[in-house]
Amino acid sequence: MSSVLQVNPRVRAIRAPTRLQSVAARITQQIAQGANKPFKKVIDVSSDDPHRMGMAPISFVRQVLAVCLYPELLEEKTLPLDVRQRAKRLLGVCGGGSVGSYSTATSGLPLVKKSIADFITKRDNGVSSHPENIIISNGSQKTLSLVLHLMASGTGVTQTGVLTPVPSPHTLPMLIDLSGVKLVPYQLKEEAGWAVELEELQQALATARGDCEPRAIYISNPGNPTGHVQDRKTMERVIRFAAAEGLVLLAEEVNQDSVYGQGKEFISYKKVLFEMGKKYAEKVELISLHSISTAPMGECGLRGGYMEVLNIDPAVYKYLRNIQLTSSPPVISQLALEVMVNPPTPGDLSYKTYAQEILHTQTMLSQNAQRACEFLNGLPGINCEPAMAGVFLFPRLHLPLKLVEEAEMLGLEADVFYCQKLLEEEGVCLGAGCENGQDDQNHHIRLCVLAPPDTLEEVLARLRSFHLRLLYRFP
């Protein structure tokens, strides 16, 4: 291509990234080359990548995958018997008995899909799930992109629109841009702990009509990056709203295993839907997403996720499966999914260690979230709503006017300017709230708290030092 005009218009239309990751990489390289910095390393807490921050993987997961990758370990007696038995079973459903083969089914290995369906049925207290409704892909974002590509159509007032929370997962706005659908924002209520409110959904929908054709609503529960956990009444209102307006309900539920708020529990949208009776259970189109990337698994690099598809017209569902034909999911990530949804149980040799590691991760996450929230609320010019789940905090910055004006002169969002200065002066990489979406009057930062406690303490200490200096510099 000899001109940028030859680049796909959808790609050209993708909103520009903040490039904070590039700055972090450049500083890391400078340190490696001997540059003198006031810090020894960059600590990146902008994304939910716990292994990068030093969290240990779950032993049973890695042991099973190690045997699958190197089957000679099936004879290694130092490995627990249940590890070797699981690996042998999983290898038995791989083409040629090898994880290096293509997936024997483009929507996922039948054994893995059955394990996922069994997991969902158990999670939802007997609400049946069926393997034929499961599609496995390369992570929840890839899974969502399949759905968005299927739905994308029209231009102008006929362009497909998707109601999307503000704030939303930081990768979602760019994914929506690339898919050719229009992002229709609905604001979460920060003062109510980032709750979803029906009036806001109705207003967002009314505003969008005449500008695009809204066809779906995206829900993140537990919320990413807010940590909000929806209660049953809220979920019922959302379901009734989707039914009344003919919207497909896209429920991202990747933080379902990371709920720690007192008195909070995860309830799936599917469970609530079916408990509302046939009027809704047989009508509302629901696509729910889950992933191996989030706590306590944290296997981001393996890129594995699935969706369960309900009440979609069979002819439409066929096209969704056909999209997947172009790229079958990696076998190794499917096997990791199987281990996630079918972990060791009491009586298994690996159960005690597995249960201890999961409890350790969940306890650390809960304690870190509370510690960081209290710390942030103790700094002038920052207030943070407590997270009830997930791995992020999303505190609000009350920035001096002079700082905001300087950022504007540099062509930067004020929160990007804040994060960039923090990165350059203290070597801490936070996420800028504008990546997640925020109203124009407010500024936020995104902080992952799933890190070893000593790492989190160092991040907080560096952040405090920088923040107080900044307030002194911009009175």
What does this protein look like?
With 475 residues, the chain is of the alpha/beta class. It has helices at 9-12, 20-32, 59-69, 81-91, 110-123, 140-151, 172-179, 198-208, 232-245, 269-275, 278-281, 314-324, 331-341, 351-377, 401-409, 414-426, 453-473, and strands at 43-44, 134-137, 160-166, 182-187, 213-220, 248-252, 286-291, 305-310, 382-383, 392-393, 396-397, 428-429, 431-432, 443-448. Helix content is 42%, strand content 13%. Helix 3 packs across helix 4 (81-91). It is globular. The chain starts with 8 loop residues before the first helix and ends with a helix.
The helix count comes to 17
Question: In terms of per-residue confidence, which ranges show pLDDT below 50 for 5 or more consecutive residues?
Answer: none
**How widely separated are the two ends?**
50 Å
The percent of residues in helical segments reads 40-55%
Largest sheet: 7 strands, mixed
Radius of gyration: 23 Å
Mean pLDDT: 94
- Which of globular, elongated, flat, extended, rod-shaped describes the shape? globular
What percentage of the residues does DSSP assign to strands (E)?
5-15%
Q: Within the largest sheet, what's the order of strands?
A: 2-8-7-6-5-3-4
How many β-strands, per DSSP? 14
Structural class: alpha/beta
Please name the defining characteristics of this protein.
42% helix, 475 residues, 14 strands, alpha/beta
Could you outline the blueprint of secondary structure elements for this entry?
Layout: H1 9-12, H2 20-32, E1 43-44, H3 59-69, H4 81-91, H5 110-123, E2 134-137, H6 140-151, E3 160-166, H7 172-179, E4 182-187, H8 198-208, E5 213-220, H9 232-245, E6 248-252, H10 269-275, H11 278-281, E7 286-291, E8 305-310, H12 314-324, H13 331-341, H14 351-377, E9 382-383, E10 392-393, E11 396-397, H15 401-409, H16 414-426, E12 428-429, E13 431-432, E14 443-448, H17 453-473
Helix pairs in contact: 2-16, 3-4, 3-13, 5-13, 6-7
